[in-house]
UniProtKB/TrEMBL annotation:
Keyword S-adenosyl-L-methionine on entry: no
Assigned keywords, A-Z: Cell junction, Cell membrane, Membrane, Tight junction, Transmembrane, Transmembrane helix
Protein name, per record: Claudin-1
Organism: Podiceps cristatus
Phylogenetic lineage: Eukaryota, Metazoa, Chordata, Craniata, Vertebrata
Molecular function GO labels: structural molecule activity
UniProt cross-references to Gene3D superfamilies, sorted A to Z: 1.20.140.150
Length: 139
């Protein structure tokens, strides 16, 4: 196989493996999971780290799919390529572009859940302490 085809295959395998790792890391950082629930900041950082891995996986898939699409387009318009061996864009390229876009978008959404450096909560108001009733409070 040509080197460019081997490189696109390696990029797609890397994107798939990175996507699996990103799923496990991001699931660990979800609020609904019991793992690491004692430290919410670390939990949110795990979700953000999963988002970064998703973006990396999406970029790897996007590069691989676009590289192969460029190769197909150049071979299609090459006048020296025989007509019976010309490839066209197939559904796999469109699925690859859509998957890469969704992985990048999902990773960006996860990265937007980044914890703030300082959380400012309104001052807590304590409940008024009840004095023991003397019986004269009621009319």
């Amino acid at each position: 196989l040509p080197g460019s085809l081997q490189a696109t295959r390696a990029l797609m395998v890397a994107a798939i493996l990175l996507g699996l790792v990103a799923v496990f890391v991001a699931v660990t950082g979800m609020k609904c999971m019991k793992c690491m629930e004692d430290d919410q900041v670390k939990k949110m950082r795990m979700a953000v780290f999963g988002g970064v891995i998703f973006i990396t996986a999406g970029l790897a898939a996007l590069v691989a799919t676009s590289w192969y699409g460029n190769r197909v387009a150049r071979a299609f318009y090459d006048p020296f390529t025989p007509v019976n061996t010309r490839f066209e864009f197939g559904s796999a390229l469109f699925i690859g572009w859509a998957a890469a876009s969704l992985a990048i978008l999902g990773g960006a959404f996860l990265c937007c859940s980044c914890p703030r450096r300082e959380t400012s909560y309104p001052p807590s108001r304590g409940y008024p302490k009840n004095a023991p009733s003397t019986g004269k409070d009621y009319v």
